[in-house]
Amino acid sequence: MPDRQINAPIEEEMRKSYLDYAMSVIVGRALPDIRDGLKPVHRRVLYTMQLLGLVWNRGYKKSARVVGDCMGKFHPHGDSAIYETLVRMVQDFSLRYPLIDGQGNFGSIDGDPAPNYDDNEQEPVVLPARIPNLLVNGSAGIAVGMATNIPPHNLTEVVAALVMLIDDPSTTVEKLMTVVTGPDFPTAGYIVGSDGIRDAYTTGRGSLTLRAKANFEKGRGGREAIIITELPYQVNKATLIEKISELSKEKKIGGLSEIRDETNREGIRVVLELGRGEIPDIVLNQLFKHTQMETSFGIIMLALVDRRPQIVNLKQMLEAFIRFRREVVTRRTRYDLARAEERAHILAGLRKAVEQLDLVIRLIRAADSPDAAREALMTQLALSEIQAKAILDMRLQRLTQLERHKIVEEHEQVLALIDELKGILASDAKLMAIIKQELVAIRDEYGDARRTEIIDRTTDLTIEDLLADEEMVVTITRSGYIKRTHVEAYRSQRRGGKGVTGMETKEEDIVEDLFIASTHSYLLFFTNLGKVHWLKVHEIPEGGRQAKGKAMVNLLSLGEGEAVATCVPVKNFGTGGYIFFCTKQGKVKKTELEAYSHPRAGGIQAIGLEDGDTVITARRTDGTREVMIATKLGMAIRFSEDEVRPMGRGAAGVRGIEVDEGDEVIAADVVQEGAQILTLTERGYGKRTPLEEYRLQGRAGKGIIDIKTGGRNGTVVGMLQVRTGTDILVITTKGKIIRMHADDVSSQGRNTMGVRIIDLDADDKVGSIASVEAESTTPAEAQ
Length: 783
Known about the structure:
Blueprint: H1 10-30, H2 40-51, H3 63-73, H4 79-88, H5 133-136, E1 139-142, E2 147-150, H6 155-167, H7 173-176, E3 190-192, H8 195-203, E4 205-211, E5 213-218, E6 224-230, H9 237-249, E7 256-261, E8 270-274, H10 280-290, E9 294-300, E10 302-305, E11 308-311, H11 314-355, H12 357-366, H13 370-381, H14 385-393, H15 401-426, H16 428-446, E12 453-455, H17 463-466, E13 471-477, E14 481-486, E15 492-493, E16 500-501, E17 511-518, E18 522-527, E19 531-536, E20 550-551, E21 564-570, E22 578-583, E23 587-592, E24 604-605, E25 615-621, E26 626-631, E27 635-640, E28 654-655, E29 665-670, E30 676-681, E31 685-690, E32 704-705, E33 716-722, E34 726-732, E35 736-741, E36 755-756, E37 766-773
Parallel strand pairs: 3-12, 15-35
Antiparallel strand pairs: 1-2, 3-4, 4-9, 5-6, 6-8, 7-8, 10-11, 13-14, 13-17, 14-20, 16-35, 18-19, 18-21, 19-24, 22-23, 22-25, 23-28, 26-27, 26-29, 27-32, 30-31, 30-33, 31-36, 34-35, 34-37
């Protein structure tokens, strides 16, 4: 025992043992050979089937027979690996060109399961493949420290590239790519962009983006539906549908109302019905982003070249196959030549025999035994032992005149074949012509059109790419419902009109805020707790004039007791400026706009508030303007914004207007030069007053009288700045809306009662007002 012990460093022994193991896995299991494109298990299965006589024109046999014979004779790794390999070579959704014709159930794209160690047998090292199987069907495998992932390709394109390379061995990869445009997957679909293809073909490594093929159809009730007809390679359809359903329930993918799998023998058809008003392109974009409708395929063109792993580019892979075919055709030609020369030798002897038939018969009749006859023929006719034996084995019928003529004719044909085969071996051009001819024959018999379409890479669509930049009326109720409606949904009316219903509200609910914003704008929702939340206008559900809207708690992450107080539309945070705040108790503050550009889930602090105070309004400003504040009891103050220094998000601000007990701020705005101040009371009375009548004062004063309150007017509910040509929208607590020209409202001084703006029912009051651009119509009522 001591004599068998070898002292060696453990690091060296571990390194050597691990490398031996790694090379065993690399060469013997995981990586395909660049010549026939097969791993050992694939090769063993095909060879076993050849030995069993399972060829294309014979009957089918049980898969277990193939698995058992392959495992018993060649493959040491268990029946599971053999069976899975056999099944995969049958599946037309796994291989671009299946290598085995199977009868029965061999699994589906849904992921349904498909239903020689003792040296007594020899197995082939490589199969004489007539097609570049490694490129045509691809391969995938994980070895020790390396992996291969080669996509399938179109046979017609690959053969065209091989022919091009045979005709001109100096052909570049770039020129080969004019015929091999990219991988061609059995499940079709799209390849997005060509950069990954170019990288893979030139360097051996690249990454593809694969997409499902989908189109739009009108479904039931006129609703749009997304129809998925092709999937990315190796995507399980059942798993994909389950994932889409899960994401829809979690609201990560919005707009889906129903999911159906209508797949049949004619092909894949998954129907995704959308809700009313949903935009199919946006939903499809979400599907690409969150599901396997868009996947990546990392290409690693690693194969065994002379039994060593090597990453190759497209040209190197094609050149390796051409070298292999040259070797196969050369060895086949030499084999055919040897068999032809053997046959010619025998036929030459038979020809001598039929030419001297009487002598042959006499020698055979005179011989005492077959051996003596053979010796006599060899001596008398100068024949070899093989020739003499063939004469003795010849049947008597071959002695007829017709048969004798056939022997002579066959001899002449074999001699011609020998000359032809020798000519092939002597001429490289003839050898390459045969390779080319056989490739073209394979292409003509099995070639087909591409399935996978290569499309240009486009930037991801956002909803702004598909929505027109147009103004919307955003309406918010006191109980927290919100909606957006096209401005055109409201028609202009004369002052004093009855209006049209603008929003259905609950009996106890009232409309509290109404403003105009672009569909592409952001909305900063400032809440009563002094926080800000972030949303885009187009994300607000759209509804008609009478629609109730959607609860904001379903759109914003509002905390307990938190409600939206005011909103600020912002087109672009990068343009600078400030947000100017005003609270119910008359506090004002301005903070840089950029401070509110990245809200978190649950909102961020926007302003510090004292007990009992709430945010009334927030406006965007450049920091150098004038500010107008109006109160419920008809007071107003105008002061320069310079008097309010910029503060951080958490600051509470400074006094803007001093409000008396029982009074509170109801509106604040940044002054627009040349505008008029339109004030409206809760009973529907209002007026326009020139801006000049509101003198500039210092911050924190009581202000001056804007409009008389009490009596028929009631308290003030809103203040707007209007110009000639401006329209106003007035909305009541019962949901009634009137649109009218601001010019129709009487222009009066500050300390006046105003005129009737809207005719109200006894139990109705004005809720809020907003201004819009006037329509280009006559003052008469326009739809």
